[in-house]
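Dear support,

I submitted the protein below through the web form. The confirmation email said the job was done, but the results page showed an empty box. After a refresh the structure appeared. I'm attaching both so you can tell me whether what I see now is the final result or a partial one.
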Amino acid sequence: MPSIARSARRRPALAAAAVAAVLAVTATACGPEEKKADDKPSKAASQEKKPSRDLKKDLGLPDDLPKDLPTSLDDLDAWKKGAWKNWDRDKWVKEAKHFFNPIIRDLWNPDRMKDADGNDRKVDDSDIDDKPSGGNDGSGEDEGVTDPTPKEVKAAAVKAPYTQDDLPVGKVFMDTPKGAMVCSGSVLKDPRHPGKSNLVATAGHCVHGGAGKGWYRNVVFVPDYNPKGMSNQQLANASKSDVAPDGIWWAKHARTTKHWIQNGAERGGKGAQQDFAVLQVQPEDKSSGPSLEEKAGGAVKPAFSTPRVKSLKSLSAVGYPAAPPFDGARMYRCADKPSRLTIDPEQPTMYRIGCTMTAGSSGGPWLDASGTRLLSVTSIGPITADWLAGARLGKEAKAVFDAVSKEG
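What the results page shows now:
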C-alpha cells in the first residue's frame, strides 16, 4: 500500500482501531458559547453563578446543560469519582448539543484498555435486502443490489512496529451501560487546520447507542496503540508509554448521522448505511503541544464522492479485532475488491469485502488502493465473521465531518 506523507519527526504511525460491526452516524458537538464583551451581569449574579461558569470554561462546555450532568465543581468531582456510571434511561443524554465528555485523568490505564470488549454488531441473512432501492445518496447502478457473499479473506497482521506503517490508525475506547468497550478509528485530515488535524473517524455505533439511547461516556482515541505488537499477556505489565506512545486523546466534540441516532440498533443492520462518526479530540493533559496529526505522523483524506463499486480495484479495512480468535492486542487488515450489500432499500447500498476481523474492528478505516483516501469505516459483519460491510461516505457523512471541523 503506497505511503501517506508523514511528519519528519519519524516514520508513519499506525495504531489500528478495534471495534465490531454496527451502524451509526448522528449529530453532536458541544462547546462554550462566547459571551459578548458588553455583557455585564450584576455583582451578585456573577458571584452566584461563578462556580458553574468556571466549570464550563474549564471543560469547554455549553451554557445549557442537562439537569443530570455536572453543573458545579462538586458535581464534577462526583462525576470523576464514578457518577458517570449512572445510566438511567430518562437521563441518558441523547441530543447532539449535549455530548458531554470531561477528561478524567488516568481512567484509561493500560489494564483497563486491555480488558475492554469489542463493540459487536452482527447481522444475518434476514437483515439483507435486495429489492429495488430508493436511496438517493449512493451511486445509481449500485442501489438496491446485493452481490453474492464474497469469499473469505483472512485478516493479515500488520507488521510491527506500527510507528513505521503508513496508517494513522488507533483504538477508540468508550464506557457503555454494558461496561468498557473498544472500537477502531483513524486520523482525518482537516482542511481548516492543514497538517495539524485533531479529527478522528470511527463508526456511529462506537459513540452513540442509536434509537432511544444516547451518547457513550469517557470516549477517547489512542493512536499507535501497542505499536510493538505485544501480546495481551505482555500488555498486562506494560507501561502507558508502551501502550499509548502518542498519548490518550479525549473527544471534545462528537457527531454522528441523524439516521443512526434515529434508527441505529444493537443487533441487525438498522442504521448501518449511515454508520459514521467524527470526533474532535484533545490530549488528556490538555497541553497546547503538537496536534494529533503531528503526533500520529499523518492523516487520511475523507472522500465523500461515493464511487461506484466497479470503479474500485480494492478496499483495505484496518482495525483491532478483539473477539475470538483475536484478542484486541494487535492490528490487522484485509484487502479485497468490494461488492454491494443492501440492508435498507431506502438508504444507499453499502460496500462489502471478505474479511475475518471480528468485534473491535468497528470504526476502522476503509482505504482505497492508494492508501490515502478514506471511503468507509467498518460497520457490520455476520456471525460467521467472514465478511465486513461499511457505509458509503456521502452527503450525510460530509455534513458530520464539516460540523466537527468547524468546532475547531
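Response: this is the final, complete result; the empty box was a page-load delay. Residues 43-59 form the longest helix (17 residues).
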